[in-house]
Amino acid sequence: MIELRHIYKSYNVNGNINHVLNDINITFPTGVNMGILGLNGAGKSTMLRIMGGVEMPDEGRVIRQGRISWPIGFSGGFAGILSGEENCRFVARIYNEDVDRVVGFAQDFAEIGKHFFNPVNTYSSGMKARLAFGLSMAIDFNVYLVDEVTAVGDNVFKKKCKRVFDDRRDHSSIIMVSHSMKTIEQYCDKCAILTKGSIHIFDSIKEAERIYKAL
Predict the structure, then answer these.
(1) What element of type H or E holds 9?
(2) Can you give the pLDDT at residue 39?
(3) What secondary structure letter does DSSP report for 33?
(4) For strand 34-37 and strand 59-64, is the pairing parallel, antiparallel, or unpaired?
(5) What is the pTM of this model?
(6) Contacts 24+ apart (CB under 8 A), 153-161
(7) Distance from the CA of 167 to the CA of which of 93, 145, 187, 188 falls in 20 to 30 A?
(8) What pLDDT digit, counting tens, does each position of 131-165 carry?
């Protein structure tokens, strides 16, 4: 379970204050796969980073119960001077996981070949996203935070992503941000729309789709 209480977040953009999140109050219960729709710049990724503890809000409180992943698709936590393998070993130790199992799973899933043993700062953005996804899936979480990662790679890789998500949904839940209605329909049970700093939950994905198209 993740609960956001009175979350505010703003950025200074060229001397102007952009209020991305404005008094956000929402609870994401465990066992419900929730999609969050929003136009580009609406604050979807910002909210996901705050939920995962990667970024702090200006005000408000985040309550987490259970094991919560970092935002899948977010590769900013990698140490650029370390190789993909070394980063995976480091993360496995932090989460008290079997190091060789995590490294093997991430290497196999990312499909980046010999680059796995090269410094991450030599990777393309797509390679970083693949590695971040593979590493995330190597560790069991109660809730997976997903940031558009299903858009990474070719059709074969996308199908692999869907298979592993389907497996995880048997015992974990997903909170996924996207601007793609098709992606939300594929992975989620309910949907919320983030717009103008506020968020609204819809029990019906079809209703959310109708409102989202109107935006």
Answers:
(1) strand 2-13
(2) 84
(3) -
(4) unpaired
(5) 0.84
(6) 153/111, 153/126, 157/111, 157/130, 160/109, 161/133
(7) 93
(8) 988 898 899 899 999 886 555 566 777 778 778 87
Q: How does the average pLDDT of the chain come out, rounded?
A: 87
- For domain 1-67+143-151+172-215, give the fold: Rossmann fold (3.40.50)
pLDDT at position 7 is 96
- Joined together, the tokens standing for residue 81 give 């001077």
Cα separation of 43 and 82, whole Å? Answer: 30
Partners of 198 in the β-ladder: 195
Question: b/e string for 119-147 if b means 16 or more Cβ within 10 A?
Answer: bbeebeeebbbbbbbbbbbbbebbbbbbb
Q: Rounded CA gap, 141 and 186, in Å?
A: 20
Helix (H) or strand (E) holding 176: strand 173-178
Q: What is the chain's length?
A: 215
Q: Where are the alpha helices (DSSP H) in 22-76?
A: 44-52
Strand partners, 28: 2
